[in-house]
Design goal:
By secondary structure, the protein is an all-alpha fold. The chain is built from 20 helices and no strands. It starts with 11 loop residues before the first helix and ends with a helix.
Length: 495
């Protein structure tokens, strides 16, 4: 029997549903060519997106019904969705469109082709699924997985108004009309991406989830009476399709025409059975409460956003360049989980704190004031910085990366030391040459000074000799003059 006396809001088992959905997506995108039995799951992994759609329809409709009639319930819903979805989505776009501006980056990886700028408008407005519907998958690649986010955002845009203006019975009627429309559209566009990514082509999943949310709240009698039959019939139908087509591929015509809807019914029944305490529901509840699935579910949004970006932008480049074995996909998946965890705790959590504070009593005028928005942006930028710092630190602490970094640092330090020693030797040689030059110059000055002293002494000696000669000549002349004077005196005496 279905137990509906659950705590409104957080339901642990539904984290496990998210975990199962993202696990299927990872298997489909990254492990398509893996070994048996993983290869079987990977082939059917594309249904993970349908499981996300059904769960979104179930949760969103449930939230809107539970809050309908409360003050500002529509505005509250939109703000909470914005705070949950927008920050990570637009951050990933910012990172991607910044990366492809790096010179020569697009020449090393086809998936980072600069042509993405031609279609940036569609990604900024959550309408890229319409782009893919009419122009095909070849328009872009690394951002292809965002088509499902576009459909969900478009659903969030109009569905609150449907819930607000219509009764539960009319909502169910509108949901059936959308399911019927999806079946018609897919049958007209079987061999076209239109059948898979156009909004009206996939409304059946969200609508079935919405119907389930209403019935589990308003008509539990029908749920208890028929849910197990619905589960068995939908599962049997899918087995029959696989049996006659021998295909689990997304391109299976029978899947496209009506199989998607059958899968959606199966997933809706599984979600409802998580509230069952007996029979099949007991097993279902146990599966979706597995800690690993709940762990994946907690970080499922980040994993979904990052995995394809990193797979196409990073792993495929390494795989093609180094010819990596498929086993190397496992550390890559671990890296995706790590980045998603860091993103959740150091970036998304900032916005989730604000999201959890919003209720019918929130002063939206104050909340949306310029001051609060400015503070919020400032804090968000700081958290982004902290996120990248922690990411860098965490990556650097991975053993083989740390070993490589230490080896590189050691080589760099050795180079710096050698350069320092070479410079020291060069400086020593320079100063030795200077000393030799100065010593040589000193000897030259000393010899020059000695020569000058010698010359000066010779000059003085010559002057002394000349002076003595002059004195001697003067004495001789004096003697001769004296003798002549004496002769003259004697002559006078004789006379």
């Amino acid at each position: 029997m279905i137990n509906v006396q659950y705590e409104k809001g957080y339901i642990p088992a539904l984290d496990g549903v998210r975990g199962a959905a993202i696990l299927l997506v990872i298997l489909f995108h990254c492990l398509e060519d893996s070994i048996y039995p993983i290869s079987i799951l990977s082939k059917i992994g594309w249904v993970g997106v349908d499981l996300f759609f059904v769960l979104s329809g179930f949760l969103i409709t449930g939230i809107l019904i539970d809050t309908k009639g409360k003050k500002n319930f529509i505005l509250t819903f939109f703000l909470k969705r914005i705070l949950r979805i927008f920050p990570l989505y637009y951050l990933s776009l910012l990172i991607f469109f910044t990366v492809i501006l790096i010179p020569n980056i697009t020449s090393t990886n086809y998936y980072l082709n600069i042509g993405h700028f031609d279609n940036i408008f569609y990604f900024l407005t959550y309408t890229q699924n319409i782009l893919f519907s009419f122009k095909g998958w070849g328009v872009t690649d690394i951002l292809n997985h965002f088509w499902s986010l576009a459909i969900e955002e478009q659903f969030y845009l109009f569905w609150p108004l449907v819930v607000m203006f219509f009764s539960n019975k009319r909502i169910i009627l509108i949901s059936f009309l959308l399911i019927f429309t999806s079946l018609i559209v897919r049958n007209f566009y079987v061999d076209n991406p239109f059948s898979y990514v156009f909004t009206l082509s996939r409304m059946d999943a969200l609508s079935i989830g919405s119907i389930s949310a209403i019935l589990i709240r308003k008509n539990i009698y029908l749920i208890n009476k028929y849910i197990h039959y619905i589960f068995v019939i939908s599962l049997s139908t899918l087995f029959f399709i696989v049996l006659i087509t021998h295909s689990l591929k997304i391109t299976n015509i029978h899947f496209i025409r009506y199989g998607y809807t059958v899968f959606d019914i199966l997933f809706a029944s599984l979600i409802i059975l998580t509230f069952d305490t007996k029979k099949i529901g007991k097993i279902t509840c146990w599966i979706f409460n597995i800690k690993f699935l709940r762990f994946l579910g907690k970080y499922s949004y980040g994993i979904y956003v990052y995995h394809w970006l990193l797979y196409r932008g990073l792993y495929m480049s390494f795989e093609s360049y180094y010819s990596l074995p498929k086993v190397f996909i496992l550390p890559f998946i671990a890296l995706v989980l790590l980045i998603s965890m860091l993103s959740y705790h150091y970036y998304e959590m900032f916005f989730l704190k604000y999201k959890n504070r919003i209720n019918e009593n929130t002063n939206f005028k104050e909340l949306l004031s310029f001051k609060n928005i400015k503070t919020g942006i400032k804090n968000a930028l700081r958290n982004i910085q902290i996120f990248f710092l922690h990411f860098k630190e965490t990556i650097n602490n991975i053993p083989f990366i740390r070993k490589a970094i230490d080896k590189e640092k050691l080589a760099k330090d050795k180079q710096v030391l050698n350069e320092s020693l070479a410079k020291t030797n060069q400086d020593a040689k320079y100063w030795a040459d200077i000393s030799k030059k100065r010593a040589k110059d000193g000897n030259f000055f000393e010899s020059t000074l000695n020569r000058l002293k010698q010359k000066e002494q010779q000059r003085i000696d010559r002057e002394l000799v000349e002076s003595n000669k002059i004195k001697s000549d003067a004495n001789i002349e004096g003697l001769e003059a004296e003798e002549e004077a004496n002769r003259d005196l004697n002559k006078l005496k004789e006379n």
